Each structure stands twice: as C-alpha cells, then as structure tokens.
Amino acid sequence: MDPDLSELDSFLDSDGYLIDDDSADSDQRYLSGFDAHDPFFTLYDGENGETHLLVSGLEYGRARKESRADSVSRYSDYDYQYGSTEERHRMLADFLADHDVSSLAVPARFPLATADGLRERDIEVAAETDDVLTTIRAVKTDAEVDHIREAQRANERAMERAETLLREATVEDGLLVHDGRELTSERVRREIEIELLERDHALDETIVACGPDAADPHDRGSGPLRPNETIVIDIFPKSKESNYHADMTRTFSVGEPAETAREWYELTAEAKGAALDAIEPGATGEDVHDAVCDVYEEAGLPTLRDDPSTETGFIHSTGHGIGLDVHELPRLAPGGEELEPGHVITVEPGLYDPEVGGVRIEDLVVVTESGYENLTDYPEEFVL
Amino acid sequence: MDPDLSELDSFLDSDGYLIDDDSADSDQRYLSGFDAHDPFFTLYDGENGETHLLVSGLEYGRARKESRADSVSRYSDYDYQYGSTEERHRMLADFLADHDVSSLAVPARFPLATADGLRERDIEVAAETDDVLTTIRAVKTDAEVDHIREAQRANERAMERAETLLREATVEDGLLVHDGRELTSERVRREIEIELLERDHALDETIVACGPDAADPHDRGSGPLRPNETIVIDIFPKSKESNYHADMTRTFSVGEPAETAREWYELTAEAKGAALDAIEPGATGEDVHDAVCDVYEEAGLPTLRDDPSTETGFIHSTGHGIGLDVHELPRLAPGGEELEPGHVITVEPGLYDPEVGGVRIEDLVVVTESGYENLTDYPEEFVL
Asked: Which ranges carry the Creatinase N-terminal domain (chains A, B) (predicted)?
C-alpha cells in the first residue's frame, strides 16, 4: 500500500508532519505502514514527500522490512539512554534536525509531553484539527478495497453461521431452542466470533439483539431469542492480517413477525435502495442520508431530520466510511462530506420502536467513477 | 472497585488531574471506572478527592449507572454545539470552572489540542511523566485480584486444550500430526483462542513456538510443530467482562528432548523457585531478578546481567506487573520497583539458544503481607 499523500503536501505549511503513537492509531499505521505495539515516531517530510521512522532497537529490523518508510532510524543512532523523558525529547529533536525540520504539524491527540519537550527545544509544534490524514485515508486504493472485500467475505460466512442457527431453531415455551439448549444473543454472538476467528478475523463487538433490545441501535443484545420478533445481527470484523474492517447488518424473524415489522422491513429495503441510487461522485453524504429520510417520511414515519427529538423511527445516520477504523470519513449524515471514487461506505437505514422492535439492513459499497459497487454478497431474507 | 487514590492526592500540586481519552487507556478506565469507545473527560479534584465525568449525551445514562464518578455531566449541560474544536475547549473550560479548577496535571500522552485549547483559556496544564496513576494501579484491591484469578482459570483451561493436542499428537515424517492433519503453531493457537472465547476471554496474541522459533522470546511461532523439540506456549488473555489479564507459560516436548533442553528445564524450574522465594514486601523487582540470574550464572549459563551483549541464555527480565494492561508496574528487572502487598506479578525465567530451542516457565503471583500467593494452578510437565 502506498497512499497518495499529495493532500498532506498541500495542507502543510510546516516543515513536516509528526506522529508519536503505536499502530493502534490508524493514522500512524497508515502513514508508517508499520505495525507495532509500542509508540514510535513517523515523520512526513513536506520538503521531499519522504517518510522517516524512528523506532527502538527491538523494532528496527522489522521496521526496515515491513514499513513503507523511506528511511528507518533507531534510538541507538542518537545515543538514546533508556528511561529519561528528557533524553527521549533530546533524541527526537536531533532526529528532526537531521531532517532539517524545525516546525511541525501534529495530530490533535499528539502527546502533550512530547510537544512541550520539542517546544522547549525551539521546535514549533501546532496541533491540526482538520483530520487531514483521516481525510486522506477515506479514499482507498484498489489494494485497500481488496482488503475490505476479503473481510466482508469472512463477515458473510459469520452471518451465514448465525442465520443457520436461527433457521435450525425450534420454539419451546415461547423461546428459540437449538440442540436442546436455549438460543441466546450470547450464544449466537459466540458462534459468529468463532467463525471469524477460524478465518483469522477478530472483532470487539457484535450486535445480536431481539425485540426491545433491537429497538435500541446501541444495544448489543442479551438473553433468550424469541420467535416472531425482529432479530438484528450487525457484524463488523477486522482482518487480523490486513487490519481492514467490513460491516454488514441483517434483520431476521423466526416465524411470522407482526404486520408493522414486516412493513418496516420492506420500507427499509426500499430506503436502502434509494440511498444506493443516490451514491455517485459529487453527491454528498447528506444527499444519501436525505434519500433515506425521504422514503421514511413519505411513509409517515418519524426521522431525526423531521423531528430532532424523536426517540422512535429513523434515529441514526445512514452510514459511515470504513477502513482501518470501523468508523471513518465520509459520514452519510447531515453535513456529510462529498463522495469521491474510492470512498468505502456503509449504507444502513433502520427503524426502531420498543413496541415493534428494530429493523436495519446494511450493505457495504465502494464509490466508483460512475456510481458505486456493492461489496456485499448476502441475501436479504427477513422471515426464516 | 474503588481505588485508593491517596498517592494521587500527595502527588498533585495542581487543582486537579484530567484525562481526555477513551477507556482503551487503562488509566482512564481505572480512574473513571467507565468503559467507552469514544474519548471522554475524567477530572480528579484534588481539593475533595472527588471524581467528575464529562461525557456525550449518548453515554450519559450508562456513565451514571456504571462509572465510579461522584458526578456525571453531559455535553448538553454546557450547551455544546457538535463539530467545533473551539466549542469543545470552551465547554471543557466551563466544566473545569464549575469545579474551581484552574490548574491541571495531565498524563504525558494527554492530547495536545486539548491542552493548547485550555492554555488559551488561562488554565495551567502540565504533563506529568511520573506515571502516577500507573503506579497506583500496580497495587490491586482484593476485587482486582479476583478478576485476575478468574482470567487465570480461563487461561489454564486454554493451556490444557493446547497440551491435550500435543499429548494426542502422533509423529509422521518427523512432524506432529493430530486428527490426520499436521499440527502447526497456528492450529494450536486457534484452539487456544476458541477455548478462551468460549469462556468470554479475548487475546491479541499467543505464543506457540517450536525449536528455533522458541529460541526467540518475541517470536509467536509459525508452521509445523516437531517432536523432541521444545515448544513454548505463552498465553496472556483478558477477561472481556472485567478487562483484567492473566499470563502463564509452559514448555513442552513431545517425546524425548535433547539432554541440554532437559537440563535447562530443570534449571529454569529451580530459577523460578528461587525467584518466588525472593518475593516479599520490601524486596525489589531487581532482587527477584537477581535470584534468577544467580541460579543461571552458577550453572555457567550467560545472562544479560553478566554479559549485556549475550544473545543466548537468559535474555529478558524476570517478570512484570499485570492488571488492566498485560505489562504494568512493577518490573522484575534491573532497577525494578520495591514490591508491595497487592502487586500482581509474573515470574517467568527462561533460557534461549537457536541450537537448543527455548525453555520458559511462568507463574502469576500476588504479593502478600508475608510473601506471596501463587495464583497459578497448572502442572509443570515437560516431556509429554
């Protein structure tokens, strides 16, 4: 992966851009192309567009092999003595001087102690709050889209395993039962995780929410699953190899749901279609969000656009960018950014009411020159 | 969990201590007692020892229920308008003013933009580099020790599953085979992960390293496992419920190992015993480390203490504190801190040489008033 950093060039009026973080920070991982548990330094030199790493001796060999940096220095190159914060700042200042950098833009969450240490050494440090790297990261290369595609394939197998459990379930005393045991949110979630693990994917959270739980889009769900109620399954795994994410939601009902739930499902499928139709370069995330609101409002259902205080109906945004982070730019929401080819976004309209349950259908698409390509290959079958 | 923050009181010469981070930061999780994916503010008020949270509306209800804070405010209490960094700083300054705080100590990695925003509003912000909260966190309450104990139980079942695979393996063409398929590091690792997952524990990494892989303590291992060679299995899972970690290592050989490996195993068991004997309040982490070095050096084996340039022998420290992070204070290493009752530490001596393989045995113990309690309940059987 070699990202296009030209936007960073035009943004910079400092000598360079510096990140001091571990690679759990996606901007760090993106700029360095390096994966490390402990913080390290990545300098983007605005003068020549080169990237330079400063890492501990422990990481040096791997950084030279694996990172995308033009050069890698190690602490011992600067006679660093472990343990002292002063020494760390002195070493970093020397490293910056070697690259003729005396003014820096840094991320908003750059560590204060490092910034103060550099300022004491007469290096200008300014925190940028424009999310410049996050904006650059929003546009994916073909290789990045392939990583997301691959994560989505694993995601589909995990959804299939969950759906199969629901299909095979029987009803006893008003609860779903599988293999003689109660089928719970926790149990379905575990099966999803195991399927992903077997495919070398990981996840922090999964939503398997039934009935009233499903009516709260932030509830991950718990306890027994019931027939004839909506069951929302939302899975957003990360590839352990590439670190890119996928995201998909399906809603199921084991047995006949209430008439309103069925109407909501059809309306939500229609809203998703309207959102997809609105996706093209030049359209904004807000346009796509509006397309969803239009469908719901025409059907007489509340939306946050129409009524900011509503607690039922369509009560979240339409989608978000996805990549190294689950939630990235652009946002498909009020004020959402203009879409560009290479943006990978989720489209996930939904309706919620504790009286009815929750319905959400989510696909993952990449914006193309002419519109979009749907990266999702999974059926939409509500009633199992 | 209500931590003893008296050390923070005596450390502070500012009005308060502020964290601006999500709960992936263990200091934030510890001080707030709250688990949230997005950054939020925790203020420790040095005047009265109270803790105050400032969170988004989305987190407000949960923060009031789940956090250990004395009060929880939400953004809307300060008429915060989403989207503007300026607004975020204005809101935070107002929140601090409400608590009569005009000078702050903050963690070394506190976000620069927030610090600069507060300084512009005449609030003093000083980054502390003494790891004050990390030092406080090193001493565990009984409840925290119980969380670690519970994670260790899950860990033992995972180790058992791995050991069982090795025991059941047969040898074909010089490789271990199980259920008709090659037994690899990856396969054993996956079984460990699945066992942990079924017990609601997670892990980022596991070491299952054979032969020359095992000779590098940082190699997680890959490829086929072989008989008559050392296989190091090091598991450090986290409870998904409590977020506390456990840690254990065992070394196995399927079939008779080389004579040297056997000697190393016995020596390492002896070194672990010597380390445990050295553990008591008032002893330092360095004392415990020295006890291990003494055993190895007396047997004529190289250690980093004796020869800082050695690449074989005992080439790492003896152990580390463990809790919300896998690696915490105190360190059982040169310069290691004085041990106190409530410190939970690993004791993990080992010997490494590509010609021989690697041997490491690791237990998890809590320092008590009179010595230590071993939290590990797992046999040490080298040859399977």
From this structure: 15-121
